[in-house]
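Notes continue from the previous slide.

Worked example: a multi-chain complex. Inputs as given:
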Amino acid sequence: MNIFQSIGDQLIGWLFEVDPATWPYTYLVYALLIALGGGLTFGFVAIFAGPVTWVERRVAGRMMSRIGPNRVGPQGVLQWLCDGLKCWMKEDLVPACADRPLFRFAPYLVFGGMFGTFAVLPFGANIVATELNVGILYLLAVTGFVVIGMLMAGWGSNSKWAMFGGIRSAAQLVSYEIPVAFALMTVVLVAGSMSLQELVLGQGGMPWEWFVFRNPFLFAAFFLFFTAAIAEGNRTPFDLPEAESELVAGYNVEYSGMRYLFFMFAEWANLWVMSAIATVAFLGGWQIPGVSPEVIAASEGWTFVGWQALSVAIFVAKASVLVFFVIQLRWTLPRLRIDQLMVTCWKYLVPLSLACILGVLVLMLLIPEGSLVDMLLRVVMLAVGLAIAITYLRKVRATYLATRETYRNMEGKDQWYPAYRLP
Amino acid sequence: MEFRDIQERVHTGLGGSFEVQDEIHDPAIIVPKEQLRAVCGFLRDDESLRMGTLRIITGIDRPAKKDSTESGSIEVVYHLCSYVHGHTVVIKTLLDREAPKVDSVQDIWPTANWHERETYDLLGVEFEGHPDLRRIMLPKDWVGHPLRKDYEPPKEYHGIPTTREAVLQAPRVEKVSPAQHEPKSDEPPERFIQLNMGPHHPATHGVLNFLLETDGEILRRVKPDVGYLHRGMEKLAERISYPGTMPFTDRIDYLGAMFTNHGWAMACEKLFGVEVPRRADFCRVIASELNRLASHLIATGCLPMEVGAFTPFIHWLREREIINDIMEMICGARLTYNYMRIGGVSRDIDQATIDKILGWLDNFEPTIDEFNRLISGNEIFVKRLANMAVIPAEVAVGYSLLGPNLRASGVDWDVRKNEPYSVYGELEFDVVTGQGWRGSIGDSYDRYFCRILEMKESVKIIRQACDLMPEGPIIAPKVPKKPAANEVYARTEGPRGEAGFYVVSDGSDKPYRARYRMGSFTAMSVIEAVTPGLMLADLVALIGSLDTIAPEVDR
């Protein structure tokens, strides 16, 4: 029984005072609710992908010591609406001699592949569209649409540059599916289930209960997954299919207007998807620290709603940190060459992820859960994780202080914005 | 070796006696065209001469006087240089104007390939034995050779009017319906992809086309197709007076306008015999080195951008913005400076400007280290550039690469050091040569890192020049209107290598022939030689590491 069915049953019972099991229009209500859920999810993607473009541009501006968009709305927060409107009003150009059906359909396939993953993402304790018991498998399968879409766009454009981008994306995405899948297999082994909700339930709210800090192999698998996921999402340093300095824009070079926007939509939605999957699989998902799922299940009324909201907030916060980190990576690193990209995948990521699976299996056999060694291992891994986080924060702080010092030297006054705010 | 010794050596080595034109500033050996190849081969291979580099080939049209019965002649001038011995020589050959034909020397110096094509294009000199004698600047179906003195530009080209009057009177072109591109299905499929990179491509740094033949991602052949920005700078100089050409030299190389200014000013000063006041020389050096910093900032900022990292570029643009402000204080312009005059500079550098320069340098120097931390040491960046497109020293010399590109290949040659001009002889700085920092000597990373280190040297030079600058006038009191008939060659060390200016005067107030020799032209010609086997992404990085800009190639 999924969330739509349970809500639908309660709704029918409350509105029409009939038994949903025997009432003939039950499935109509279910369908309406599912459509509503789809709309809400689409709304979430739009609401997320839009402002995140603004955040990305402001963060990039800060990193590049320039300002970025700050004209539309306070601090430029409404910039994405203007961009969307602009793209919407542009002419939908199809190049002469393009393969029109392929060309027109490709953006929807790319977007559909990305959007399909939202069906199984657990946003909160009970907020998930479908609890598929093969969630991970579905996830890996549905993102395959993206490859087909990009290949269609590259081929259908009738442009050699676009075709280069399409072929590159096919080679890259198909290769990087393998380390992604292998890295996810490690947590599947530990949790004993392929359902994403089960993965979350296998962890706890506290950091030492997360999969990432359970043992060194899972810790490594997290980084392998994250690297491979960035490559699957075509983000720098793996953004070869749309390398703007080599291929101009890659597979989407001939697109304009709304169709172009759909590609961009898919790119930023994917930013969310990969961060969300990493959160679910390794970082404890929506688990609230100190509150066990049983407490949430037992609660009723507004308490129940409160717990749900809190779990969603925790999930979004964790994923957003990862999103922010990916944005930072993009504006720091250069791009790999195609042969180096393949070497990274097949010579390093694939063998390492296999080794991780093996290591996790061995440790599962040797160390029973809850034993003293297990606890010790978790503490050590948590310490390592904390050390990495603290180093990162210290570097950010040092850079900020240096910039402030330079600004003071050059201009003779302090920067007018505090550290936590964008210029 | 002095000119007399070189002449002696050629005479004894080849057992002949050549005419010598020694009334001009740089004396020339006049070689009959039948013996040209023998002389060139001897000059290159003789141990005591070792003229490994052909700097430039110039054609000069000398039509007959009106009342004369002779047919006139075309001079082809070869400026040669030896990096081993540090001497130069000029050889000339005289051709019949009606059917100018001469043997090609492109197998002796590979760089002659493009220079001969340009001479063929603009003067109609046929080089026999040249493998690929096509027009280089003008379209292949252009009529006439523009640098001939009796050249009449065609009134129209493919139905497009070219004269000002015709353009104003021409009827508006109605909207043309696009041609239908039907894919040809009966052709056999191509094994290799033919690709046009440019003229509109973000990585080509200006309007310029590369014809690529690729096997998947791997390049098989790259043919640069230049000439989209050919503005006829050399022809323009023949129509405009000596001081009037100064602002045009800005547009030859808009990123290093100070050096083209300086080169033109030095050539004219040699012609006019003008002494530059000492303060003006210091002003020139300060402005030039600031300009070198600005140009290297663009070069080293663009390369990470070609490789995919956008952030470093913006950081360097921020620094360059301050240089632009300083330049505005110095000469009133931010990009095309027109700062120098024949015999001096247009404005003095006052104390406020010097304070601003020194203050900025104090902040800029640590920024170089910060930049290195950000990108130069980045593992991906190093992996992309190290051992990529290695240009060995002999190829670099043969193709006459200049400036940082030459030095990255390990050739210790800097005009500022080896043939000091202006006040560079008094200033202390090091010449940076490629060390194979992350790979082998002469790879793309060396070319990049040479520029980074050169910026530090420029900072040193500016500090010293600001320190040593004396008081005094900034421009020579009197500059004559007309020079004597003479030929001079002046060179400055620009950010993209030696900017050479060869000026021929006939005694009037306009140059008889002006020839500009720019670093990007030869850097572009070497691309064809080093690219086979590289990948598509490497080509973009290679163009970035050679730091070519299109207006300098085409002039």
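Summary box: Chain A has a mean pLDDT of 82. Residues 94-366 of chain A form one domain.
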